[in-house]
């Protein structure tokens, strides 16, 4: 699960375009250990915060999935909050190990005697 803001007082944030994803889109994630993971969007849902399905979104699904969550829907100017959450459900496509540092070959030069 990755949670991110849709926007702030300063403008768009990391998940500003999350709501535009559709089934079949690919999401690439780079992990701190250098592993690259690619997921395919299976579906996108919007839930009112008042009836957010915690178990569906946060529970393990018994498979390699990733949920991306941000705020969305109508914005309540009175409270300064969105009334809904956007959840993008995905499934694992590929996992690529980190690229190992390539060793630079060293040349062994023959000794020259004079």
Polypeptide structure, described:
This protein is mainly β and 114 residues long. It has a single domain (2-96), classed as Beta Barrel (Sortase, Chain: A), CATH 2.40.260. Helices cover 4% and strands 46% of the residues. The chain is built from 1 helix and 7 strands. It has one helix at 54-58; strands at residues 2-3, 7-8, 11-12, 26-30, 36-48, 65-76, 81-96. It has a 5-stranded mixed β-sheet, with no helix packed on it. Strands 2-3 form a two-stranded antiparallel ribbon. The chain is globular. The termini are far apart.
Question: What keyword list fits this structure?
Answer:
two-stranded antiparallel sheet, 114 residues, globular, five-stranded mixed beta sheet, mainly beta, 4% helix, 1 helix, 46% strand, Sortase, Chain: A, single chain
Topology:
Blueprint: E1 2-3, E2 7-8, E3 11-12, E4 26-30, E5 36-48, H1 54-58, E6 65-76, E7 81-96
Q: Tell me, what's the shape?
A: globular
Q: Which structural category fits the helices and strands?
A: mainly beta
CATH topology: Sortase, Chain: A
- The appropriate CATH architecture is Beta Barrel
Number of H- or I-type helical stretches: 1
Task: Kindly report the spatial arrangement of strands forming the biggest sheet.
Answer: 1-6-7-5-4
Kindly estimate the percentage of residues that lie in beta strands according to DSSP: over 45%
User: Considering the protein shown, what is the CATH homologous superfamily?
Assistant: Sortase
Q: What is the first-to-last residue Cα distance?
A: 69 Å
Q: What is the CATH top level name?
A: Mainly Beta
Number of domains: 1
Secondary-structure element string:
EEEEEHEE
Helical percentage: under 10%
Main sheet makeup: 5 strands, mixed
Number of strands: 7
């Amino acid at each position: 699960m990755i949670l991110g803001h849709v926007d702030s007082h300063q403008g768009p944030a990391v998940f500003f375009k999350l709501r535009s994803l559709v089934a079949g889109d690919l999401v690439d994630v780079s992990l701190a250990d250098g592993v690259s993971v690619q997921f395919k969007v299976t579906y996108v849902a919007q839930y009112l915060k008042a009836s957010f399905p915690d178990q569906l979104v946060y529970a393990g699904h018994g498979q390699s999935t990733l949920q991306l969550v941000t705020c969305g829907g109508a914005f309540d100017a009175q409270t300064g909050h969105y009334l809904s959450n956007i959840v993008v459900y995905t499934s694992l496509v590929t996992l690529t190990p980190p690229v190992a540092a390539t060793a630079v070959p060293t040349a062994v030069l023959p000794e020259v005697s004079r």
